[in-house]
Amino acid sequence: MKITETRIPDVKLLEPHVFEDERGFFYESFNQKAFDAAVGQPVTFVQDNHSRSAKNTLRGLHYQLPPHPQGKLVRVTLGEVFDVAVDIRKSSPTCGRWVGATLSADNRRQLWIPPGFAHGFLVASDVAEFQYKCTDFYAPDCEVSIRWDDATLAINWPVMDEPLISVKDGKAPAYLVARKFE
Predict the structure, then answer these.
(1) Can you give the CATH number for the domain in which 102 is found?
(2) Is 62 among the catalytic positions?
(3) What is the pLDDT of residues 76-97, one digit of tens each?
(4) CA atoms of 54 and 31, how far apart (whole Å)
């Protein structure tokens, strides 16, 4: 597995070794020992999620506060998305900064987003299937959102038209008033 550092050191871009021939391809999409070595600590996943979204759908920016913060290992198995992680840890030197990466079924990249980060993605292809592992269970009472187009964060989303967002995401607060990790 190739590990690429991002401009926020705790967020990692992972690229599996892919074996291809005339029959197709094979790759190991997850290996606990290799993953733990890549992120520098043991991580336990408890839930896998799978979403399918149409072009120009923007999901996020979502996170869960303690006692149920979620780390996520995300990947795309059909189509392409622009994936974003925002550091919301108050004590972090990178608090308020974001990183983005193009994830697709073709490039097979995965992004590790540890607890303490807001997460969102924008679908760039006609349709995308997005799969992710979580380090804690979904806890609606701990869920928080930040506006996807927050001026303080200034995320450079590759949006051509107004994105398709949920009612909940449309009502999300600005970054400066959203609750953050202590």
Answers:
(1) 2.60.120.10
(2) yes
(3) 999 999 999 999 999 999 999 9
(4) 30
Going by C-alpha positions, the residue among 81, 31, 86, 25 that lies closest to residue 51 is 81
The answer to whether 132 is a known catalytic residue is yes
Annotated catalytic residue, options 17, 62, 119, 175: 62
CB 96 within 8 A of CB 27: no
Query: What domain range is 43 assigned to?
Result: 2-170
Number of domains in the chain: 1
Which pTM does this prediction carry?
0.95
In a domain, 101, yes or no: yes
In a domain, 64, yes or no: yes
C-alpha closest to that of 76 among 26, 145, 122, 38: 122
Q: What is the CA radius of gyration of the chain?
A: 16
182 lies in a domain? no
Sort residue 154 into left (φ over 0), alpha (ψ -120 to 50) or beta. left
| Identified catalytic residue from 63, 119, 132, 175 | 132
